[in-house]
Inverse folding.
C-alpha cells in the first residue's frame, strides 16, 4: 500500500510541475509574443518639426544657360552678372504677409558647340522647325533652360519681335545685342517661363485657403483640373425650332478663333473639339420681367440652376477626358429680350456667364424687328467670349501678352 501511495504522490507532483512549466512558458514566451504580433505599431510623430514647416521659406532653383557664339570668358562673366542684376529677386512674402515661394536663378554662359553651330547653318522654313531640330540634336540639362543668341548671318526670322520662346525649354534671340534685350529676357523668365504669380497662387492654395484673396480664390476655383486631354463642346440651343431656324458657322469660327490657341497648347494636352445643335431645349428657369427695360433678366443667383436641365440634354459621348461645354442659348420670343444682370443689377456686357470647372453659357437675342425664319448667329460676337472663358477655365488668365515674345 505504501508503494502505491508513493507512486500517486510522484504522479501528482509531476503533473503539478508540468502545469507550472506550461504556465511559465505561456506567461514568459507566449503572452509577450501574442502582444507583439497583435499590437498596432504607432510611431511617434515629430510634431515640433512638422509645426516648423509652416515657417520654412519655400524656394526653387532655375538653371539658365546663355549660348553665345564666340563668347569669351570675360564677356560671359559680364553677361551673367548683367542678367542676374535684372532678374527680380522674388519677395518671400506678399503685401498681406503671406509666405511665398522664392525663385533662385543659376546663370551660366558658354559658346555654341559644334552641334549647335551645325544646326544654325541648316536651312529652315520657320523658327519652329529650328526649335524641333535643336531639341533632337542638342542634349539639354534636365530642368534647365537654354537662351540662344543666333549668329548674325541668320536672317530668316524677320526683324520683330527679336525673342522667340520655343516648345522645348529654349529661347532664341534673333536680332540686336544680347545685353540690350536682357531685361526682356528676364521678364519672360519671370512672367512666361516661371510665372511667379501662378506658382505663388498654387502654393498658397495648397497650404492655407484662408490666405487666398477673393480674386485669387476665384481663379483657383474656376480652372479645371489638369488632365492629359480635354473635350471642348459647343452647343447651340434653339427652344422654338417651329418658329425660326438658327444656324452657325462653327467650323470656320473654331478654325479662326480657337485653333490658334489650341495649337499653342498642343504640347500640354490633347484637345478634341465638337459641336451640336439642340432643339426644344430650355434653360429650365423662368426669367423675371423687367417692365422698365421691357425685357427679361436672370440674376446671378438663378444662373447655377440653368446648368442641370441643359446638361442632361447634352451629348453622351463616352470619353475619359473631362468636358468643357460652351452653350449659345437663343431665348424664345416670349422671353425676348433676355439679359443677364450682375450683383448690382447692371446688364453683363457679354450677356454670358462662366460656370467654374464646367464651361459657359451665352444668351443671344434675335432681332425681333425682322420677321425672319432663318437666323445665323454672328460668330465674331460669340467666339471671343468663349475663347476668353476657355483661358480662364485652363488657368491662363495671368499669361503675358505677346508684346514680350512670340511662341513657336
Amino acid at each position: 500500500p505504501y508503494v502505491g501511495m508513493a507512486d500517486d504522490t510522484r504522479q501528482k507532483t509531476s503533473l503539478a510541475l508540468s502545469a507550472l512549466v506550461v504556465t511559465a512558458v505561456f506567461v514568459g514566451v507566449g503572452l509577450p509574443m501574442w502582444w507583439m504580433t497583435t499590437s498596432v505599431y504607432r510611431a511617434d510623430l515629430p510634431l515640433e518639426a512638422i509645426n516648423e514647416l509652416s515657417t520654412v521659406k519655400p524656394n526653387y532653383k532655375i538653371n539658365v544657360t546663355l549660348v553665345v557664339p564666340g563668347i569669351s570668358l570675360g564677356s560671359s562673366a559680364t553677361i551673367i552678372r548683367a542678367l542676374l542684376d535684372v532678374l527680380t529677386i522674388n519677395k518671400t512674402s506678399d503685401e498681406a504677409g503671406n509666405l511665398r515661394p522664392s525663385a533662385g536663378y543659376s546663370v551660366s554662359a558658354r559658346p555654341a558647340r559644334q552641334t549647335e553651330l551645325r544646326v544654325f547653318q541648316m536651312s529652315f522654313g520657320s523658327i519652329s522647325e529650328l526649335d524641333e531640330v535643336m531639341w533632337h540634336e542638342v542634349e539639354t540639362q534636365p530642368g534647365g533652360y537654354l537662351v540662344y543668341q543666333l549668329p548674325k548671318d541668320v536672317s530668316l526670322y524677320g526683324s520683330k519681335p527679336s525673342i522667340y520662346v520655343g516648345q522645348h525649354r529654349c529661347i532664341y534671340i534673333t536680332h540686336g545685342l544680347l545685353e540690350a534685350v536682357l531685361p526682356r529676357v528676364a521678364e519672360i523668365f519671370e512672367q512666361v517661363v516661371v510665372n511667379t504669380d501662378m506658382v505663388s497662387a498654387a502654393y498658397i492654395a495648397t497650404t492655407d485657403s484662408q490666405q487666398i484673396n477673393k480674386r485669387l480664390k476665384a481663379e483657383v476655383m474656376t480652372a479645371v483640373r489638369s488632365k492629359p486631354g480635354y473635350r471642348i463642346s459647343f452647343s447651340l440651343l434653339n427652344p422654338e425650332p417651329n418658329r425660326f431656324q438658327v444656324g452657325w458657322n462653327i467650323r470656320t469660327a473654331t478654325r479662326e478663333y480657337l485653333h490658334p490657341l489650341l495649337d499653342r497648347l498642343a504640347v500640354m494636352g490633347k484637345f478634341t473639339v465638337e459641336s451640336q445643335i439642340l432643339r426644344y431645349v430650355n434653360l429650365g428657369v423662368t426669367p423675371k420681367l423687367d417692365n422698365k427695360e421691357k425685357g427679361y433678366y436672370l440674376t446671378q443667383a438663378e444662373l447655377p440652376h440653368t446648368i442641370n436641365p441643359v446638361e442632361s440634354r447634352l451629348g453622351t459621348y463616352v470619353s475619359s477626358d473631362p468636358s468643357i461645354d460652351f452653350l449659345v442659348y437663343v431665348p424664345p420670343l416670349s422671353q425676348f429680350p433676355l439679359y443677364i444682370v450682375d450683383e448690382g443689377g447692371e446688364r453683363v456686357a457679354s450677356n454670358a456667364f462662366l460656370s467654374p470647372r464646367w464651361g459657359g453659357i451665352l444668351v443671344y437675342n434675335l432681332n425681333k424687328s425682322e420677321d425672319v425664319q432663318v437666323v445665323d448667329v454672328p460668330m465674331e460676337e460669340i467666339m471671343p467670349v468663349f475663347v476668353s472663358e476657355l483661358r480662364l477655365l485652363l488657368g491662363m488668365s495671368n499669361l503675358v501678352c505677346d508684346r514680350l515674345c512670340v511662341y513657336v
In short: The first helix runs from residue 2 to 38. Residues 92 and 250 are 47 Å apart (CA to CA). The chain is about 35% helix and 20% strand. The first strand starts at residue 59 and ends at 67.
